[in-house]
Amino acid sequence: MRTDAGTAGLHDAPMMESSSLQPARDPARTRAWIVGGGIAGLASAAYLLQAGRVRGDNISILEEADLLGASLDAHGAPERGYMTRGGRLFDDRAYSCTFDLMSFIPSLTDPYTSVKQEFSAFNEENRIHAQSRLVSDGDRLDISSPGFGTRDRLALVALMGRTEPSLSTQRIDDCFDPAFFETTFWWMWCTSFEFNRWHSAAEFRRHLLRFIHELPHIGTLAGMLSTPFNPYDSIVRPLTSWLQAQGVRFQMNTCVTALDFKAVGDETRVERLRTWRDGAVGDIAIGENDLVFATLGSTSANATVGSMDRAPEASVDAAGGAWSLWHAVARWRPEFGRPTVFDGHVSESTGVSFSMTFHGPRFVRMMEAFTGNAAGTGGLVSFRDSNWGMSIVLPHQPHFVNQPDDVSVAWGRGLLPAARGNYVDKRMLDCSGAEILAELFAHLHFDANAPERGAEANCIPCVMPFLTSPLLVRAVGDRPAVVPKGALNFAFIGQFCDIPDDVAFTIEYSVRSAQTAVFTLLGLDRPVSPLYKGYHDPRVVLATAGVLLG
Questions:
Q1: Phi-psi region of 509 (alpha: psi -120 to 50; beta: other; left: phi over 0)
Q2: Which tens digit of pLDDT belongs to each residue from 280-328?
Q3: For residue 472, which of 353, 383, 344 has the smallest C-alpha distance?
Q4: Distance, CA of 424 to CA of 435 (rounded, Å)
Q5: 148 with 215: CB under 8 angstroms?
Q6: Is residue 311 a contact partner of residue 461, using CB atoms and an 8 Å limit?
Q7: ∠ CA(451), CA(457), CA(460), 5° rounding?
Q8: Mean pLDDT over residues 458-486, rounded?
Q9: pLDDT tier, 19 (very low <50, low <70, confident <90, very high otherwise)
Q10: Are 41 and 294 contacting, i.e. CB atoms less than 8 angstroms apart?
Q11: Which end is more exposed in the chain, N or C (fewer Cβ atoms within 10 Å of the end residue's Cβ)?
């Protein structure tokens, strides 16, 4: 599957029906307050500028941390090691909003080239086709068959045919026999999208339908695309640079603790933002022509980082500002969602990622020889027999803009961090970087020839208590609409608003929430980018049937 060539915008594609529009606003008089500097907040600011023609100096982004990007953040240096919470794979059919955003953001290196064009050119030369998608006991596994039994096939087809309300509060393992979770298909799917068997059956169904066109090559990830560098350097930095050039204001280390609402008949408006900055309480009055875009919840809240010789000290004593804000908002009206559904099950949402920095070429050469893939062309390598559910990625090098030629970076994650390792008899949650490397090298059978861990390698683990919280079991109404009924001047953005048919835990979901919020609150006669539905395409259905019915 090829990505868009980059010169034609996604506005040329068929559009989906737009959401209900409010009366058009005068962009010259509109001020916008955006709570949260993750990709949803940054995209909201971008669309206010590009589509809404709002002045840049009338847009303010209030961010709790001292770095933008939220879960897309990345930083580091060769000496102390590079750190990223993970990479992202993209799909040019499913990610229409994300590619639309990329189409008008200029590259950092060439103002006449868009991020989308840069992305497309990179993927033309660096195609993913995994040769070692699943590994066991140091050997590649045959992934030519999904490993289904008849009951598994019937259960999958039945799940895709059900309605979302009928799956309310059901887990994935409520819908399948235990044998399904031992199939090759499940291991490829769950490691690709970070599902566990206790996650939401409704969300699993959405993912199956949304990415149904990827089923025929889930074993090679051949339809997926990647960023030239890590997502922070490839997307967040150019987007932030463009916003700053347009005059957008960034107020860092500012936590919004509450929104003051006022009922106006059957309608509701935000009158004030309550803030906490540098130990001081503050407030921001919301004027008649002001709009508020609030990020609710956070997958990266309370993340803690360890080191080569120290495990992260995980803490959920007080969830981050995006969660406390949602709790405050939810007390106003039931239709503003139920945050405890998503932040109250840490044992089911915690994930661990680890970033590895290697000096010298040895690790890259060993991985390329082991996998049969050059760096950046293999996607995920997942260890089928790993107690931790471990996967690693060797991305295209360099992975960071400032990365020297003699340094390489890789990253990995664990789906089951509360389990004890196969070789290191500890929970992944309790492991230092050196211990995670020891487990990894043992799975790869690299022990005899592995780089000297103290000299050539540095591994930085990161524990994220709410990582997979968007995938947790939910019911209808647990997430608020992007623009709730009766909302006069506010919208909810990010991973925890409800967007019919789209899939959470993706960059696309956050950008779609931003498009929906901006186009609706500004009363723009512009539809949200089309939501691709491959299950309506007979060719996709036929190809998928070959996988399911095999």
A1: alpha
A2: 999 999 999 999 999 999 999 999 999 999 999 977 666 678 999 999 9
A3: 344
A4: 7
A5: no
A6: yes
A7: 145
A8: 96
A9: very low
A10: no
A11: C
Give the chain's radius of gyration (CA, Å).
23
Give the model's pLDDT for residue 86: 81
Helix, coil or strand: residue 58: helix
Q: Produce one character per residue of 138-166: b if its CB has 16 or more CB atoms within 10 Å, e if not.
A: eebbebeebbbeeebbebbeebbeeebee
Count Cβ atoms below 10 Å from residue 109 Cβ, excluding itself: 9
Helix orientation angle between 538-549 and 150-161, rounded to the nearest 10 degrees: 150
The confidence score (pLDDT) of residue 387 equals 98
Condensed to tens digits (0 to 9), the pLDDT of residues 413-437 reads: 999 999 999 999 999 999 999 999 9
With a CB cutoff of 8 Å and minimum separation 6, the contacts of 490 are 259, 268, 269, 270, 291, 292, 293, 294, 483, 521
Residues 6+ apart with CB under 8 A from 509: 470, 495, 499, 502, 503
Rounded Cα distance, 101 and 514, in Å: 10
Q: Which residue reads 């340094």 in tokens?
A: 407
Whether omega before 461 lies within 30 degrees of 0, making that bond cis, reads: no
26: pLDDT strictly greater than 90:
no
Cα gap 77→232, rounded to integer Å: 15
Alpha-carbon dihedral 123, 184, 463, 84, rounded to 10 degrees: -10
Q: How far is CA 269 from CA 485, 488, 521, 522, in A?
A: 11, 5, 12, 15
Q: Which of 533, 366, 527 is nearest to 10 (CA)?
A: 527
Provide the pLDDT for residue 394.
97
Eight-state DSSP code of residue 175: S
Backbone angles phi, psi at 410, to 5 degrees: -140, 165
Tokens 């235990």 -> residue: 178
Q: How far apart are the first and last CA of the chain?
A: 22
H/E segment holding residue 250: strand 249-251
Q: Which residue's structure tokens are 């309506």?
A: 536
Predicted TM-score (pTM) of the model is 0.93
